[in-house]
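Researcher: Sit down with what I've pasted below and flag anything odd:
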Amino acid sequence: MSHENTNWGQSVAGVVIRDGKVLLARHTYGRGNGLLIIPGGYVDYGETPQDALKREFLEETGVLVEPRALIGVRFNMHDWYVVFRAEYVSGDARPDGEENSEVLWIDTEEAMGRADVPDLTKSLLAAALTADGGALTPHSYEGNPKHTPSSLWCS
């Protein structure tokens, strides 16, 4: 996979819920290694965040999605990260074998109680499950140390 067109300052992720289950991927590197997280990745130059989300989901999970609503934003002086609630369109969930080792549809209530689902993913899942969107609320984020301090705001 070539990274020469990657905009390292812009990234996206998505929460997809289908039949009461959320699509999560078991990450294989970095701080998320071994954890079940929502799929996502970096935006390519010339690509919209929505198109990046569709591409990342298809590459990482084999699932085609359609972004529907913005549910979270994290930004600082170096980069930004937007999270969408997205709708399942088609495809069979499967791992990519590179960035994730498994891709699972997990009952949303089960996901909220699992120790291998990080708090950030749980906060974003809760935001996606909120019908009215609610008010924006801060969620601390301890990602890449060179990009902190930053906050994630969820609706």
Observations:
- The domain at 6-154 is CATH 3.90.79.10 (Nucleoside Triphosphate Pyrophosphohydrolase).
- Helices lie at 49-61, 108-113, 119-129.
- The radius of gyration is 14 Å.
